[in-house]
Amino acid sequence: MKDLEQAAAAADREARAYFAELTPVETANHTKVLNAFNEARVSAYHLKETTGYGYDDDGRDTLDQVFARVLGAEKALVRGQIISGTHAIALCLFGVLRPGDRLLAVQGKPYDTLDKIIGAHAAGEGSLTQMGVIYRELALLPDHEIDWAGLDMELQQPVKMVMLQRSCGYSLRPALDMPALRKICLFIKQRRPETIIFVDNCYGELVETTEPLENGADLMAGSLIKNPGGGLAPTGGYVAGRADLVDLSANRLTAPGIGADAGPSLGWLRMFYQGLYLAPHLVMEALRGAIWGALFLSRLGYEVYPDPAAARADIIQAVILRSAPRLKAFCRGIQSASPVDSHVVPVPASLPGYGHQVIMAAGTFVQGASLEFTADAPLREPYAVYFQGGLSWYYTRIGLMRAAREIFLTNGEKH
């Protein structure tokens, strides 16, 4: 295994310069989060739970204010009753869109779990298209650029909502950074000021110093067991943006007339507050792990995306393994370096919302918590695995070393 140790040592040396570039972002986001806590006058009584209807839950309502301040929103809805990023996105889509409205995706096919929600690529009972929403999709150009001419044509007629995706998802394209998002928003608003720009912000929070709402978006959604939960949130999601649009989304979470005014916080509040407080550092730890992994794995001869030197807009790192056995071995290695269920062997399986079998390595304290350090992949060409998270980049380093070693032991490859 001498090659592995040499590659790791080289990655250690190279990573220092990249890590130093993250310091200003981490400092700015720490300051922003702390200022939000201070301005909201967060107090010990805000950390206590409510039950039942959750009326007059000041801790819950103050948490909404803190998230709104951090995310640059007029209003935010932060709830443990939102079970995933997909759920939060669905609240926005079903809350805002009506029969006859046009929904436009401009980065090609959205993330797999949205297929049955939209109803364009996979039939879903109660999908948007089944309910009369008109869906259109623009593929990216071969260089991963937006089809500006096609977008201009689509905007010749009213479009109620344009949907953008911050992360790369299960694709090999750049994540959407804030300069690129600002350019898209400006293009759309110059032609259709009334069009609502919605962003799936999963995996992107606190990676840069500004968020989509500060760059022209109207509404966005994400998961608390990813970046903003700071590794502590046991469940939950958020919606943030223009107040009227957040209210419409809240009506889908509960019911019209109830909206955001009810919903018990149960025992979640301390973990939600503390997780957000820690998130600026832990998101940077995830980025350090992704950068180190790209350096290490590229030295072993694997294609990585993005490149180690690329600007980061999400916490996801892809590795192209080119075979199902390598992919499975990689996930076994990651699972073996997990704090929970390290003895479990991950196998491909059908999962709700996915069109292909998916293999997931996720020995996490919170089921599926991507910020903790996980790896997953659909079983399809080119057999790319996507890893993300790492509450300490040192744990990410250990896991990636074991993943590379497992590939060697399984396939007899020279490392």
Report on the structure:
- This protein has 415 residues and is of the alpha/beta class.
- 39% of the residues lie in helices and 13% in strands.
- The protein is globular, with a radius of gyration of 21 Å.
- Total number of β-strand segments? 12
Mean pLDDT: 95
What coarse outline follows from CA principal-axis ratios? Answer: globular
What order do the strands of the largest sheet run in, or round the barrel if closed? 1-7-6-5-4-2-3
**Amount of helix:** 25-40%
Task: Give the arrangement of secondary structure elements.
Blueprint: H1 2-39, H2 58-71, E1 75-79, H3 85-96, E2 102-105, H4 115-118, E3 134-137, H5 148-154, E4 161-165, H6 178-191, E5 196-200, E6 219-223, E7 237-241, H7 243-253, H8 269-299, E8 303-305, E9 316-320, H9 324-336, E10 358-361, E11 374-378, E12 384-388, H10 393-411
Parallel strand pairs: 2-3, 2-4, 4-5, 5-6
Antiparallel strand pairs: 1-7, 6-7, 8-9, 9-12, 10-11, 11-12
